[in-house]
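Re: your question from the hallway

Yes, I did run it. Sequences:
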Amino acid sequence: MRGSHIVAEAALRAGCRYYFGYPITPQNELPEYMSRRLPEVGGVFVQAESEIASINMVIGASMAGARVMTSSSSPGISLKQEGISYLGGLELPAVIVNMMRGGPGLGNIAPSQSDYFQATRGGGHGDYRTIVLAPASGQELCDLTYKAFDLADHYRTPVLILADGMMGQMMEPVRFPVLRDVGKLPRKPWAITGAKGRKSHFIRSLILDPGQMEEHNWKLMRKYEQIADAEVRFESFKTDDADLVIVAFGTAARIAKAAVKRARNEGLKVGLFRPITLWPFPKKPLQEVAKRVKHFFVFELNAGQMVEDVQLALSGQSDVFFYGRPGGVVPNPAEISRIVSRQFFQKEIG
Amino acid sequence: MKKVFGRPKTLKPVPYHYCPGCGHSLLHRIVAEVIEEMGVEEIAIGVPPAGCAVLAYNYFDVDMGEAAHGRGAALATGVKRVLPDHLVFTYQGDGDIAAIGTAETVHAANRGERITCIFVNNAVYGMTGGQMAPTTILGQTTTTSPGGRVGNRDGFPLNLSEMLAVTRGSAYIERTSVTSPAGIRATKKAVRKAFEIQLKGLGFTLVEVLSPCPTNLKMSPIEACRWVDTEMVNYFPLGVIKDVTAPEEGKNAH
Amino acid sequence: MKGSIKIDSSQCKGCAFCVEACPNGVIEIGAKRNAMGYFYAVVKKDGAKDGKGCTGCTLCAVMCPEVAIEVYREER
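Structure:
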């Protein structure tokens, strides 16, 4: 099944019945699938007039207590950032998919990882974070999307699925989880559903008093700390005996994994550390790896973004080498294993 | 003696933060009265804007969800699609609905979204301190049109309601004022009709209310009302602009 | 018809809409200020003169932005 379709079907099975979006390549297969599938299960699909409108429809549906999602690609996500900041401030759950493409500006439609900073630093204005999940396979597109709705509801926070055109277009077999009964999802007493049998309430992010606003900010920070403690995900592949560990996520991690296998065939002890949650970044697990490994090779499909988190995590205790291909260029595993081999095992590690 | 006029229950008993003679104050009460008289308190959901009415949730005793500047119609769309049997209304100023939120509003109308927009037009940005609004009339002095608005330099007053009436999805659009007892009665009638048409599922509804902003017009409250009645109405004529429930000949006045 | 009004002086902001709206000139802006600092509306002392007093028509309350006026009317 195609990656974009996997995300859409997984969302639906997680209880998502509302989708609001605006077309942009390379993720159009996702809204197309939703427009056909949602009405079959009593859901609603709306093609909005813009990304800005669609993210605000998401806010409205989320306020009303529904599981809701939108999807877009880099330039469209920039437009959605206003609403994502509001989701953060309003403490509303929602799932947002970014099938990244080359940028900045209009860029191109080729696979890229150029929105790492935007995704992991909040992206919009104000002190907030979004949970960022980076799938690297068809099955993970499914599992992480399904999980994203639970995380969003549990923490009342927006969750981003960060993938790229490659992940969205790729066809892979997948095993779907069961279709959730929407009626049995956890209740949301905070939602605005009409003041029936209770006092009226409101949802707002405007807090004029600086003292109260600060308290709201600290409350959000405590929530983010809780998430950072409980929700870190990563994959460690052949790192136990490694002399060098490649750090990569998403599509880049797939390429890196194949490169690791090639390098191992050549007798080089290379491993892979793959963050699955980009925020919270798996800092401690990476530090654990760094107790055994001195050399890290960060590979990204951008000009160097996650490498900063790796450097922060390792705080100068290890060698961190960066190799990036921005602009939608996707190198093959041979290129990566060649660079690892030449640059490191021949020169640096020697 | 019998009490014949008092505060509606759907309006919380707290003093407004609005300036003396502000049209928002009057319109809040009108909307609250209609909600109470229709008995829809339990299904009403309001969407306040960014602007002077940003704190509207402090006053209306119904569920409310705050929208970003201009995004009211989009947010209300999301709410209404999840809760199709509820009464969903936005409350937006001229800058909110007719400048930054034009696209959201036009397309909500075009989709025939079953929501009601309460559009407060006072020809000026109130909260930010009296800048030129999309509905500032020609020649009107504001803090960003110090020599008076000039059409082919600053743009012309935008007749959003007439624009929306052209969309096939809009069902009812009326322009009223709150500058006199008669205007207030007409406004109340219009809001009620818009709500009823929404609940019947006939399409998008909007009531544009010409409203005095004495502070930013730099007039006394009564002078501000007279300015609305004599100057503003030349650009924004009062009356029903579209009503799909009216007999054939009166369907679209334009 | 006889009526009467009750003005909540603490909420009045002195906009004078009620003064203008009253067909019988029953209301005026008084000389005292309330806690918010506004000269507030009061019922004139001689408001009921010449049999032209408050009729409970509600126009003042309809025009009051602050919902500060309650209107009462004699039951018949």
